[in-house]
User: Fold this.
Amino acid sequence: MTPDATTSLRSQVREAIEAAWQRAQADLAPATAGEVPAAAGESPATPGGVPAEPQHAPIEIERPADPSFGDFASNLAMKLAKPYRKAPMEIARAIAAHVVTTATDAASPIASVEVAPPGFLNFRLADGALAATTTRVLLDPATWGRVSVAHPERINVEFVSANPTGPLHIGNARGAFTGDLLCRVLTAAGHTVEREYYFNDFGSQVKNLGGSVVAIREGCEIPEDGYHGEYVYDMARDLPAEILEQARQADEDPALAVGRWASEQVRAGIQASLEHLGCHFDVWRSESTLHKDGWVKQAVDRLRAAGDVYEEDGAVVFRSTKYGDDKDRVILRSTDDNAPTYFAADIGYIVEKFSRGYERIVFIWGEDHHGYVARVKAAAQSLGFDRDHVQMILTAWVRFIRDGKEIAMSKRSGEFITLDELLGEIGVDAARWFFASRAASSGIDFDIELAKKQSSENPVYYVQYAHARIASILRKATEAGISAPAGDDPRLSGLLASVLTGAPEAQLARQIARLPEIVEDAAASEETHGITAYATDLATTFHAFYRDARVIDEAEPDRSMGRLALIAAAKTTLAGALGLLGISAPESM
RNA sequence: GCGCCCGUAGCUCAGUGGAUAGAGCGCCAGGUUGCGGACCUGGAGGUCGUGGGUUCGAGUCCCGCCGGGCGCGCCA
Assistant:
């Protein structure tokens, strides 16, 4: 539990239900002596007849679809109907009777509990809970939205990892945003995250790239399987003569030496593009260092020691079928002096990553790599790691369409749209929102012209507009000599208590208070579309508030200050939601 | 052929087994003598691909079928 994290109101209500359920046990007289019913068929009673510790699945709490049902609803009584052999309504009434509300304890976050058919428990939040939350936002705006998962982990997330043989193209966009968004959400939930980029810096494609640069430089034809993009010509022009000279003196293939130089140029360009997107990486790891530092050899040795390799036709094969793979996989080739395969390097990489102390390693892959999942997990298991600590998140394919036709992309031909070009057209914020608002597993048709046309109508601007509008009101208030009270202002609780009796104010405070839940859900599901939906909801609620409640009114200074406190909290919350998505929150636009 | 993913409003997409299936865009009709009209209010628009099953309850879980995408190298 980090001290600056927030416990969501949902968690507080869950604890209140839990406690009420415990106190209601006597009224609910178990169907069979010694049996403690479990909420969701979990944790059977101990065989000896002694009641087990009351373990059960977490009590489910949801935001009701219909706001007239209150702020939170639980289906607990319906889940308990079978084990208790009682009607859900009866159970619900028994639990409701034991819920502590503000009627008996002024500090309770719950104002009232209602029972509704077929057995729902509906809860209403107390104004005091809303005021306390608003105060907390103002007291420490920087940490508002941070929560604390039950078991924080050190997590490595590897994403993009495109080979440095050409600039990133639009096909790399989804992986970049998906990985970055995941890292932001996991961090906000209390995990420690490192972001990693893996690239091949010595393979045949790199040599190929070097060969293409050399050919252009020397006025020859580019080899048939070479690279033709404009950036190749730029590098041929910029290639320092020393590189060629040194290669000649060392009697090295110039394509190889130039390839090393060229791929580093490209890699640096990729890094710059990613930083421009707001995607920062902590670690850049090259395939060659895995071999050089002995990780690949160590991994192969460990598989061998585990008895999971055999030789076949001169090749060394990993028996991945033992761990659920479709077929066994070659790790050392029969040719090229038993050179390791790409997969062997990946196995070495697993060993290297876990040696750094991560509890979980995550890969963001395009779904075209899904066939790779089983073999990598198999390798992890054979190496003695928990296969569940190796996680793959697959992003569905994005079809880029222009004029009704899918755009084919090929780095070698140079016929592709770069990520930089796309973002120049539609803007980073709009692009981030586009990907953040869709589940990673959902296939997307990205119509370039449509996206450009719609970028000006992108909901992201609706949210940013709400933020800028609040900023404007706060500026105006300062000019009028009224300012928003700070979180530690002794008048704050009185001002909020008075102002929260109004419907627009209470609605806004309710929306603000949801942020920690949204972060919890995003981290648990490892998806961010809940955040975009929430940000839109909050903006809508603010715009309604703006319509119904005038903030600056010199004739009503107390009411003005109470409302200023609320919109300041709303502004922080909007910025927090946008920040989770890596999107800017402008003071004006 | 085998495996994985997907199928929800005209379009792009949400929907942790719960109450009347939602949002944005588009379309139609309205709204401001006041803090930013990049705003607000209302409306039309759905056999949740399809047929069974499990459940007190299924868009959600299971099976079959139809349609679409991807994968099934000692390539990376």
